[in-house]
Design goal:
The protein is of the alpha+beta class. It is about 50% helix and about 10% strand. It folds into two domains: about 100 residues, no CATH class; about 290 residues, Cytochrome P450 (Cytochrome p450), CATH 1.10.630.10. α9 packs across α10. The radius of gyration is 24 Å and the shape is globular. The structure holds protoporphyrin IX containing FE. Protoporphyrin IX containing FE (HEM) binds next to α6, α12, α13 and α17.
């Protein structure tokens, strides 16, 4: 009886302490029924479904409570610049730090994110990008050949997700972290195996919802990964990319101890490898389940293959591939679902494109979810659930950039890479990597679905908000080198 009274008192206290009223100038507020927790469970289970439900109820802007925090969700792409361009009132770093701490147990008190970003731009754009692209291409070629020796005559069967993710992860790891070394500690396959386990815990780690048993496993996998990454970038001759070596040096200059450096390296592994493999999977999957799209992309590739010489790697950055680009853009429209989250560090009036104004409270978070709009918005895209490889092509074959909502041309018609100062630094590298990979697979191999009528697998709904989506299950394919009929 006493326990029940105490519980009731606690619930009442939490209701009083966390009660918040909406003022007239603020977005519609939806606290949910459960004190403190609010909508956290529904949000975490399937964010796209939940946000769609809230959109039906409140419109393009609303504030929800989730695990004690108030999050304002904005869904009008015409108004996104008001968030993206205001880094004074809306801060990128604070929420990124919360995630860093939850996922990687990483705190970098003396870190200058601007220096790390400038370093990254130096290495992932311009002349250095070309070097990275060709190193990546070389690793991809070697790894693909190792999967299927040229004299192999029989089909090899594999899940497409595993095939794409493992190859791209290993090639990316060798290009940026592991170098040519071949001792056990830097074996890309063992890093991939551990990373995959870690990846499985990622969303729960970010939300702080791991159960005790899961937490134990997740922490031991993380420890193992930190051991495997210990030598990466440590010395100039560690075999890793110059970027990683400079990144480590920057951390050292900031007074960061070695254990913390490793955690920062793991975070970079996640940022650079976590999305590319899944994106390549969805693209190949959509091509294989849409014969017309596959034919169009293969036709474009075969024209390029004719220009190839033994010295040039396929898919030099300067080659134009509008059909492939459209097929990729369409893939990302359907499967890139990041939250663009900022913390309100000073009160701000948000001016919406339709003339409405809303007050954002200091301490709240603001979240854009471009997956719902523009990407899946039926007002912008006819039959938005369907894969149409040529959606981003004009009739004359040029790139289509004109998309409209409410009669006005959109600046942001897809946003897989974020936007503005905190947009993706690795975008060009990622696109080129995916293009090289898909080119090599489609040009050098016969690839087909094991079940010719197979459909794309469902989406794992718990991953909405965390970049590229991942499938529930896999799509079985078979493949063999092309010259062995
Ligand atoms: C398909 C692959 C990729 C996708 C879909 C993707 C997506 C994104 C998105 C949406 C953001 C913005 C987050 C925000 O505004 O809150 C971002 C940021 C970032 N991405 Fe990527 N990314 C990919 C690949 C890569 C690669 C290969 C690298 C590195 C080589 C990379 C490095 C970064 C970094 C460093 C940032 C943070 C920028 C900052 O601090 O301001 N990404 N990415």
């Amino acid at each position: 009886m006493i326990c029940a009274i105490l519980l009731l008192a606690l619930v009442l206290l939490s209701v009083i302490l966390t009660h918040r009223r909406r003022s007239k100038s603020e977005p519609p507020l939806d606290r949910g029924l459960i004190p403190w927790l609010g909508h956290a469970l529904e949000f975490g289970k399937d964010a796209a479904k939940f946000i769609n439900r809230m959109k039906q109820k409140h419109g393009n802007i609303f504030t929800v409570r989730a695990a004690g925090r108030y999050v304002t969700v904005l869904l009008d792409p015409h108004s996104y610049d008001a968030v993206i361009n205001d880094s004074n009132s809306l801060d990128f770093t604070r929420y990124a730090q919360v995630l860093m701490e939850r996922i990687f147990n990483l705190r970098l008190p003396h870190h200058q994110p601007a220096d790390a970003k400038a370093l990254m731009k130096r290495h992932f754009l311009g002349k250095n990008l070309a070097t990275l692209n060709s190193t990546m291409g070389r690793h991809l070629q070697v790894l693909l050949k190792a999967e299927t020796p040229q004299n192999q005559k029989d089909w090899k069967e594999e899940g497409l997700f595993d095939f794409s993710y493992s190859l791209l992860f290993k090639a990316g790891y060798l290009t940026l972290f592991g170098g040519e070394q071949n001792n056990n500690s830097t074996d890309p396959s063992s890093v991939y195996e551990e990373y995959k386990k870690f990846d499985g815990f990622l969303t729960k780690m970010a939300r702080g919802t791991l159960r005790a048993e899961e937490k134990k496993t997740a922490l031991s996998v993380r420890e193992r990964l930190l051991e495997l990454l210990a030598p990466a970038g440590l010395t100039e001759d560690s075999g890793s990319s110059p970027w990683l070596h400079h990144f480590r040096r920057l951390l050292q200059q900031e007074g960061t101890d070695e254990e913390t450096q490793r955690k920062a390296v793991l975070m970079q592994l996640w940022a650079s490898q976590g999305n590319v493999g899944p994106a390549a999977f969805w693209l190949l999957g959509y091509l294989l389940t849409n014969p017309e799209a596959l034919v169009a992309v293969k036709r474009e590739f075969s024209q390029i293959a004719q220009m190839e010489t033994s010295e040039t790697l396929p898919m030099d950055r300067t080659v134009n591939t509008p059909v492939f680009d459209s097929a990729l853009e369409e893939t990302l429209r359907l499967t890139a679902a990041p939250f663009i989250t900022r913390e309100v560090v000073q009160e701000k009036t948000l001016h919406m494109a339709d003339g409405q104004e809303y007050l954002l409270r200091k301490g709240d978070r603001v979240c854009l979810f471009p997956f719902i709009s523009p990407q899946m918005d039926p007002e912008i895209y006819h039959e938005p659930q369907k894969y149409k490889y040529d959606r981003f092509l004009n009739e004359d074959g040029s790139v289509k950039k004109d998309f409209y909502k409410a009669g006005r041309r959109l600046k942001y018609y897809t946003m897989p890479w974020g936007a503005g100062t905190n947009g993706c630094v690795g975008k060009q590298f990622a696109i080129n990597t995916i293009r090289q990979f898909v080119y090599m697979v489609l040009t050098n191999y016969d690839v087909e679905l094991c079940d010719l009528h197979a459909q794309m697998p469902e989406i794992n709904a718990s991953r909405y908000g965390f970049g590229m989506l991942q499938p529930e299950g896999d799509l079985l394919i078979r493949y063999k080198p092309r010259n062995t009929h």
